[in-house]
Structure of TetR family transcriptional regulator:
Amino acid sequence: MRGPGRPRSDQARDAILDAAFQLLEENGLERFTIEGVAARSGTAKTTIYRWWPGKGALAMEALLAHAELTVPTPSTASAVADLRTMLQGIARSFAGATGRVVASIVLAGQNDPATLKVYHEKVVEPRRQRLRDIIERGKSNGEFRGDLHVETLVEAMYGALYTRLLIRFSPLDEAGWMDRHITQLLEGALPRPLCDRKA
Amino acid sequence: MRGPGRPRSDQARDAILDAAFQLLEENGLERFTIEGVAARSGTAKTTIYRWWPGKGALAMEALLAHAELTVPTPSTASAVADLRTMLQGIARSFAGATGRVVASIVLAGQNDPATLKVYHEKVVEPRRQRLRDIIERGKSNGEFRGDLHVETLVEAMYGALYTRLLIRFSPLDEAGWMDRHITQLLEGALPRPLCDRKA
Amino acid sequence: MRGPGRPRSDQARDAILDAAFQLLEENGLERFTIEGVAARSGTAKTTIYRWWPGKGALAMEALLAHAELTVPTPSTASAVADLRTMLQGIARSFAGATGRVVASIVLAGQNDPATLKVYHEKVVEPRRQRLRDIIERGKSNGEFRGDLHVETLVEAMYGALYTRLLIRFSPLDEAGWMDRHITQLLEGALPRPLCDRKA
Amino acid sequence: MRGPGRPRSDQARDAILDAAFQLLEENGLERFTIEGVAARSGTAKTTIYRWWPGKGALAMEALLAHAELTVPTPSTASAVADLRTMLQGIARSFAGATGRVVASIVLAGQNDPATLKVYHEKVVEPRRQRLRDIIERGKSNGEFRGDLHVETLVEAMYGALYTRLLIRFSPLDEAGWMDRHITQLLEGALPRPLCDRKA
DNA sequence: GAGTAAGCGAGACGGTACGTCAAGTCTTACA
DNA sequence: TGTAAGACTTGACGTACCGTCTCGCTTACTC
């Protein structure tokens, strides 16, 4: 049921993606070269160019293939607890090798909108959706305000993650950071009225 | 009181920084080359390498020299209003050419910690400090809760800016987003108690 | 009476040789590629490699199959006249597309002795033999000296042809040059004695 | 009196031409690669491309720089003797390494008219001129016929050389070949009249 | 004012990687 | 078994920049 011709070698494909991911971890994208991937993977440069248009796309696919992007989606009775679990999972993965690779991808994406678009579709959007779902659940069960703007909350939560990853205000693995961040996002900055629930 | 030898040419220096900034705007950092800067500025590569260690440092200095990074620090009676003014100013500057250059620099910094460090010291930290000052003022005058964690709020506010700049969740010049973002950061996500101040 | 399996396709063979000859005419051997022949002929590279060991051999066979190398062998009473007829025929064919292809083949042969050997056997030797025959006839009937060294004359005659073809001292289609060349080869360079037959 | 900038390195130039000549001798032009020359000479590919447009031109210059193309121009009382001396010298040089390189050059020239043109100007034409001079001298002093067509004789003499080099009718170092060839060119092929000077 | 010490432009140098082309081999589906 | 299709490794192509290195020339300060 397949056309004629030698079928694509999965062995080559895997070797390329493995090598690409390793090199991305080791060097970052700046010193990530197609030539290097070819050498490390034992394949030919042409084979790489046959299947990927450039380093951005290759790095992207290497990330998707290898990184543990599949942070578990928690689903307990408490939306707040689920938020904490999920975001801390992402923070953990960003703090390690995956984070370095993600940073590379985003970097590549600046001059390669196609790659950034794929990253959005495959990584960012699915996660945002899961976050949205949890928040909506929180709105339904009264954990959150009914007039909460979901997108804005999502953005604020992700924003801190990506900013620590890329701008490095402070380390991603700082103890208690994520917890404190979430708490304050939820509680806001304004003074509590006298009859505050915590009063 | 200066040693012997021909003094450094300010004309060359300016021509280099001008050319660098232009090329950064036009091409992003990926296609930003020392060779290109030399050609555009009419100087010799040697001259560039004499004064800057690499493209990261040059780009950094070109940014600092040209971009209107000096957003005015507002100082009215209302800390909340000042926050809005300041952050909207930054958003505006990020939405234009400066934003593209900043993105380039920050991402280049992923593989060039020295450059990123300079960016922190010269750009990020001063702004964060101004933000902290405003927030502290708000705490003092009762606009904000007394137990507010200032750093966390600063990070949340900047996070959204940088994330829109780098990850491009949504455009930086979307009408009203900054306002909405700030409002929600201040109000939090939890339900308002019955005796809410707005009730 | 043939073994099992699909028989060789003459259609493919012809398409390959046609395409090869066309490409040889168009580009010369330098830019003559097996890949190009496969594309132009609509066959697979595999098929070409199954039947020919390399580009030299293929070009050779394409030449033999298509070029009008079969200059008519004249045979009149006058050996001298026959020589002129034959050599002028070859000159004419060398002056056109065939000449370019022959030049390609011969020069390719510099690094591919097998191909050059085939060219000798299939093209050069038969023609030289015909030339020898004519000259021998001339010796028999008194047109030429009895102690003439035939091989040397053959070589002198061919030499001029190939040299114009390959070194391009002068164009192959220069009017009258072949005639003049033959005449002088026959008459020699020495002064005519007083009782010269023309005296 | 030289412009600014680092002067061209003669060391690099010589290393390149040496390496090129060696590789030409070893492999012929077919397997002669710029990459190989760079490796052998210890220079960078870019340096080669800076000074030579392609392999044809490089091979050409390597030949001119190294080959003993300066066959001595004899000048004795006898033009015939001088012809023999000169042509035998060329034959000797063609029979060795120089010959292989010359063959390569001519080959390259088929698809690179500029290279062939240089070869004409620098090698072929000077030699032809020297041959012409000798022949004219022979005409003047009565060794040759007064109505001898000089160009044709030159061509016939060279033709045999290049043809043996390229077509390989017979080896260039066959004993006595050149002598016999010259003799017959001079004496012609026609029967000697009764009062022939040799009679 | 001669000497000396930088800075400057130009541009050649050894390199690395680029993205492309073709070579020749191999593996499939189909005839 | 032959053929078209097409993926594979290999190796060279010619180009773009890298960062370094002479050069000749231009300013200064210093003796």
Summary: Residues 79-187 of chain A form a domain with the Tetracycline Repressor; domain 2 fold (CATH 1.10.357.10). Residues 3-9, 12, 42-47, 50 of chain A lie near DNA strand F (CB under 10 Å from a C1').
